[in-house]
Amino acid sequence: MFIRHAEKPADHGTPRGVDRHGQEDAHSLSVQGWTRAGALAALFDHAQARGSVGVVRPGRVMATQPTAGYRSTRERDTAAPTAARLGLEVDDRFSHQQADEAAAALL
User: Fold this and answer.
1) Which of 37, 31, 39 is nearest to 10 (CA)?
2) How far apart are CA 34 and CA 29, in angstroms?
3) Rounded CA gap, 73 and 76, in Å?
4) Predicted pLDDT of residue 8
5) Separation between Cα atoms, residue 19 and residue 82, nearest integer Å
6) What pTM was estimated for this model as a whole?
7) Which residues neighbour 37 within 8 Å (Cβ) at sequence distance 6 or greater?
8) pLDDT tens, 45-68?
9) Residue 51 dihedral angles phi and psi, to the nearest 5°
10) If you average pLDDT over residues 15-40, what whole number do you get?
């Protein structure tokens, strides 16, 4: 399943992005985004236990890593709660610009 990152902060004003420590960070998720990332973790953790139709518990979690040219941590911020809850590592060896390489690794 491919998931775009959870809620990002507004370009100007509120909501603002916050890092995992609650410090303001324009490259991180908004508070609502962190809430959605946590909800995804719960959804995937209980996927097959509750008979969720069309939802399968992942065996692997991937997210792109930030670079000097693309500093967003939102992708990893969204993936990390699911990986942690399922006892998995986030595979973040690819950057946002390496879509072809990431696709090949998934296949």
Assistant:
1) 31
2) 6
3) 6
4) 80
5) 17
6) 0.86
7) 6, 29, 77, 78, 79, 80, 81, 82
8) 988 665 666 788 899 999 999 999
9) 70, 35
10) 92
Query: Which residues on adjacent β-strands are paired with residue 91?
Result: 62
Helices (DSSP H) in 1-107: which residue ranges?
31-45, 74-86, 99-106
Cα–Cα distance between 65 and 83 in angstroms, integer?
15
Residue whose C-alpha is closest to residue 81's, from 21, 39, 50, 47? 39
86 pLDDT more than 90 = yes
Long-range contacts of residues 97-106, Cβ cutoff 8 Å, at least 24 apart: 97/67, 97/69, 97/70, 98/64, 102/62, 102/64, 105/62, 106/62
Instruction: Locate 107 and state its tokens.
Output: 């296949």
55 vs 76: CA distance, rounded Å: 21
Task: Give the gyration radius of the chain's Cα atoms.
Answer: 14
The residues with which 90 forms a beta bridge, in sequence order, are 61
Residue 59 tokens read as: 């065996």
DSSP H or E stretch at residue 61: strand 61-62
